[in-house]
Amino acid sequence: MKLPIKPIFLPLFVGVILLTWGVTGFFYYQASNSAGKGTQPITVSIPPGTTLRQISTKLEDRNLIRSASAFRLLASIRKKQANIQVGEYELNQSMLPMDILMAITSGKTVLHPVTIPEGYRITEIAELLAEKILVSKDEFIKESRNKELINSLNITSDSLEGYLFPETYHFNKHTSEQKIIHAMLDTFKQRVTNQSMLDQIQKSTLSLHEVVTLASLIEKETGMSKERKHISSVFHNRLHRNMRLQTDPTVIYAIEEFDGNIRKKDLNIDSPYNTYRYKGLPPGPIANPGLESIIAALNPIKTNHLYFVSRKDGSHHFSSSLKEHNRAVQQYQLKKVTRR
Q1: Which of 24, 72, 156, 168 has the most neighbouring CB atoms within 10 Å?
Q2: Model-level pTM?
Q3: Residues 46, 53: Cα–Cα separation, whole Å
Q4: Which domains does the chain have, with CATH numbers?
Q5: Distance in angstroms (rounded) separating the CA atoms of residues 266 and 255
Q6: How far apart are CA 83 and CA 274, in angstroms?
Q7: Measured between alpha carbons, how far is 279 from 306 in angstroms, rounded to an integer?
Q8: What pLDDT sits at residue 8?
Q9: d(CA 220, CA 87)
């Protein structure tokens, strides 16, 4: 038998019901109405490790939602609290809380273009990425030396130098160093290890690693497209004659803290990368070459040149004998400029 509600408790019971409806209505209003009418984009950054509470507070502070707690309740009801993606999002005040929730769980973040120049070393790429999209420079360099990853790619050097393909990429802020490196490796695979290129490498006397290594020397020696195959011919000719390559960029790579000047003593640095001391190619690439330099490494023009020297205008003078080369050095490097 049901007991009747005593009259003394009736007002309290009704009050609880009304309060519940009121609170529910309030949260419903806060969670189903936009914070304003503004359509001006507002960029919100969500770094790794950010909690839903921190995100909702940030959205409320930026006047993108009316209530942080109502937004958290909405996320909980929709079971989206664990689906929020790291990155930057462009939102505005006219968006409904549900639309904002869908946006920050979609992964469709603001992408930033990052151009990796041809010939950049891993350390330079790390500095550029740290500046552009806030990755950790040290973590990027560490990941580029991941032995397990290097071994899985059958690379015979101790880093991914040479295999981080120079290209314009689009990353969101806070993209992990691992994802960035894998994106560059994937681009290398697409551009370099396609069937056409592999057929050329198969016909050459060089392995893929040697081709990339030689290409990195060419990349660092010239920025002129028309000279790349000519520089390549000099290196091929010297390798064929078992001569030392004697190229300055390898010495620079061997110097831990290069100050911009190569001194005579630097040419004696005991490093396998020092091609003034050791014959043949260095153990691995000294930079990340572009496709033109890789093609040039595989397709040198036919010459009898063994030397080249900079004309100090971006181009080089090529010579077949040491005597001719010394004259060119005198002319382009050692000749004093007469001033009026």
Answers
A1: 72
A2: 0.83
A3: 12
A4: 40-110 (3.30.1490.480), 112-192 (3.30.1490.480), 204-303 (no CATH)
A5: 8
A6: 51
A7: 14
A8: 59
A9: 35
